[in-house]
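About this split. The held-out portion is used to measure sequence recovery: a designer receives only the structure tokens and must propose an amino acid at every position. Recovery is the fraction of positions where the proposal matches the reference. Here is one held-out target exactly as it appears in the evaluation file.
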């Protein structure tokens, strides 16, 4: 039996258990994947300062993100097709997050619907919104999130058009998967996945199919998004959405200081420094490198969060040290889900929390709010 000690153990197990097209969907970036790799690699360049003879008792990683209590400064990121990594994946991940005490964010492009998550959870979850050409649908989507009592709306700004992801094109990504010979042979080796999927009716995009006029079958994800995502999205739309929503608003996809300043003026409650996990503009700066300049420019006027490349509790600690009030994990959660279902998501959260707690102690801190860049070795981190 494999002893799981870090996120990479879950990743290897997920690769064995999840059909190739869905594993590749999670484990890929756009074009050359240079930004995808940089998100992870740039964390490794940052070095920590070890302190000794400090009382390490009574430690706490308890945090708050947009006024919500969290067991650690981590939330589950919105990830598309989560329910194709494991049957009912979004429900399982939401339940794991709720039990652990961190926020869960549901993607517009989820397999399980807003209503599915609301039915299976008690704590308000967050909903991530993509803006599409059909504004009537967007209004109804926002209203559905309100009806489900979602605690925050996470508006993604960096996917007006879809970056080219070579693996998705080669695999013919679709939900449910097209039954080509290649896919059938691959799925035949993933019996656990097939049996679980056979036991659920949730195999389409639950927030879309049946809710968009004329859309009964999604077909190709890239084809549909190319037609439906709105390339004309602008800051006036953000104002309209904020007014329609009326609750806490988080803007996702900010990488530039100028955009961060505009985000402040929009009246949003928080922004997420993010390059979409390296899945949009290849060659863009990693999120952890972009973070300090944005915090310096706007951090006293808006809550700054970040995502991209987080695979450990040490990564979380480094992001907090550089000014992030919260972080998000996407792939780390997906690897756990694909490997072991809800138990795998819980395992991923346990791994990250333990690494965060122990590393914080080794750096001479006992509470997460005490963490700042003085725990980092000068000259090793971006400024």
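Reference sequence for scoring:
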């Amino acid at each position: 039996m494999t002893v799981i000690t870090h996120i990479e153990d879950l990743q290897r197990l997920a690769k064995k258990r999840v059909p190739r097209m869905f594993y590749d969907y999670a484990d890929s970036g756009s074009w050359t994947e240079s930004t995808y790799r940089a998100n992870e690699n740039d964390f490794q360049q940052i070095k920590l300062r070890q302190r000794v003879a400090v009382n390490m008792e009574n430690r706490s990683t308890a945090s708050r993100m947009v006024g919500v209590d969290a067991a650690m400064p981590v939330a589950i990121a919105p990830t598309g097709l989560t329910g194709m990594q494991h049957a009912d994946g979004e429900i399982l991940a939401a339940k794991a997050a709720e039990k652990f005490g961190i926020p869960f964010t549901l993607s517009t492009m989820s397999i399980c619907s807003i209503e599915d998550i609301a039915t299976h959870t008690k704590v308000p979850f967050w909903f991530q919104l993509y803006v599409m050409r059909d504004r009537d649908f967007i209004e109804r989507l926002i209203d559905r999130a309100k009806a489900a009592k979602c605690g925050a709306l996470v508006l993604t700004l960096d996917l007006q058009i879809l970056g080219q992801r070579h693996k998705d094109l080669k695999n013919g990504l679709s939900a449910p998967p097209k039954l080509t010979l290649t896919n059938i042979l691959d799925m035949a080796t993933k019996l656990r996945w097939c049996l679980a999927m056979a036991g659920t009716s949730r195999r389409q995009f639950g927030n879309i199919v049946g809710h968009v006029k004329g859309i009964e079958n999604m077909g190709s994800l890239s084809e549909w998004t190319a037609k439906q995502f709105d390339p004309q999205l602008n800051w006036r739309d953000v104002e309209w959405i904020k007014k329609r929503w009326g609750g806490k608003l988080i803007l996702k996809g900010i990488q530039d200081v100028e955009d961060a300043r505009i985000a402040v003026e929009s009246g949003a409650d928080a922004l997420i420094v993010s390059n979409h996990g390296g899945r949009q503009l290849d060659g863009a700066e990693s999120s952890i490198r972009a973070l300090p300049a944005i915090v310096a420019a706007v951090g006293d006027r808006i809550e700054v969060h970040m995502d991209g490349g987080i695979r450990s509790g040490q990564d979380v600690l480094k992001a907090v040290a550089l000014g992030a009030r919260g972080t998000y994990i996407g792939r780390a959660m997906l690897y756990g889900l694909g490997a072991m279902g809800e138990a795998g998501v819980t395992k991923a959260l346990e791994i990250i929390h333990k690494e965060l707690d122990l590393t914080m102690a080794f750096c001479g801190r006992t509470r997460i709010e005490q963490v700042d860049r003085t725990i980092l070795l000068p000259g090793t981190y971006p400024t």
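Annotator remark: The mean pLDDT is 94.
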